[in-house]
Structure formats: structure tokens, C-alpha cells
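Handout, page 2. Input:
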Amino acid sequence: MMHFKKRFIRGVIYYGLRIVVYIASGIPMKTGLRISEFLGKLVYYIFKREKKKTIRNLKAAFPEKNETEIRSIAIGCFENLGKGLFELINLPKLNKDNLNKIVKIEGEDYVKEALLKGKGFIFVTGHIGNWELMGAVFGIKGYKVNVIAAPLYDNRINELLIRQRAVHNVRVILRGSHNIKREIIKALHNNESLSMLIDQDTKVPGVFVDFFGRQAYTPLGAASIALRTGSPVLMGFITRQSDNTHKITIGPTLNLINTGDRESDIRENTLLFTKIIEKQIRKTPEQWVWMHNRWKKQPEKHN
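Output:
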């Protein structure tokens, strides 16, 4: 009975999502962004549990901010996610002709410099702004983009998202797949980019590093792969502007810590990446996913 109920609920979600995609893809962009911003704010008020989690995380991260400031950031967070979902649905409309009207890129030369080394590069970022859009932008510009992503609970939704990314040549390497190591090495060997988002508490090998003053369990894959392959590491972020255009900012190749103590080096480089992500979040806190339970695991309880 429970199995049937779960399948039924997942079916409702999947077909409901298909209907949303169909409707949203026919709405003009400006109108759709206004509607999705409103719906995002509505979700903030309706889903009390997510609202409380967001407020709690924001208060812990920004003890210096008052209630009004915290509430404003929290609402902005949900509004940004609403707009991001609408933009994701409409990614197929993005092309070389309209790209420059929607997204500006700063630091693209660092990407070109990294590729000259012939080892591909590891692109580390976080769930800031519309991170899905960032991958599509580089795909449109002709770069070979590979994204490591966790499979979703429903394979139909998973396939839907993979197809949406593939429209702009963004290739997904599913976390947990039996050939993931081979696919990663192949991508870097072919001088392609490997994008990794490391700002969530997930069921992958990780280390505890400081994040907003608290220990946060953080995926160690980016640091581990970089040290093992010698591929350059770049970090970059996409941020939404006040007019709903976007700006991608990419930094130079990072100088990694490599003392020969592998365990220590992985931890220190993961901390380095995390501090850069934290610095970016502090600039635009309303554009990060504060409803995520980032500090779920703690060192004293984690085996």
C-alpha cells in the first residue's frame, strides 16, 4: 500500500511538473519572471517548515542583522528560486543571438588560459544565483561542459532535467554511477570542463570545514580530483542583477595547497574553496539556498 502511495504521489508530481513546463514555456519572459517571483514569495509563506529553516540559518550566519533584514533576505531567496525555475524551463529559448542581452561574463580569459594547459579544468561553484543558467551559457559559447549532479528520486524527472541541460550541450555525470571515475578522467583528458557544486551537505565523501562560523560537511571531490590529476581549478559565480539580467564572474586559476600530505591538503583546499563561496554568498545572500540543511551533519555525531 505504501509503495503504491509513493508511486502515485511521484506520478502526480511528475505530470504536474510537465504541465507547469508546458504552461511556463508559453509565457513571455518578463511576465513569467514577475509571476514566478510572486509564486516564490507565496511558497515562503505557505511552506512554514522551509520558512523556519531559512530564517534559522540566516540568523546563525548573520547574527548582526535584525529581524527585518533577515526576513527580507529570506523572501528574496524564495523569489530568486522561483525566477530561476522559470528561467530553467525556458533555457531552450537562449541562443547565441540573445545571449549577450541576458548574461554578461567577466573573466572568460581565465577559462581560455586554463584550457591551454591541455588538462581540462575543474570549475567549482555553489548554488548561487541561477547556477543552471551558467552551465548553459558556456555550452552555447562552445565550451565542453560536464556537470557532476546527484540523481533525483524520480528517474522521469531526472531524465527531464538531463534533457533540459543537454539542449545547450551540458553533459551530466550522475553521482553514484558505476563509471563516474572513468567519465571524470575522460572529460579532463579531453580538455573539457568539470563543474562541481560543493556547498551542500550530501551523501558523498566529505570533510568538515568552517562555513559561516560553523563546521559544515563539505564534498571533498573537487580538491581530491584536482590534486590527483593536476587539472587547474577555477571558481566562478553567476548573480542576478536588479533588471533580471545575469553576471558571471570567473576568477584566475587557484594556487592549490600541495604539501604531499594528501588528507591535510584535501581538507585545506576544500576550506579554501568554501571560503571563496562564503565570500560570494555574503555579497548577495538572497541568492543562496538558505532552506538547505547545510549544517545537518556535525563532527561529534558523524562517523
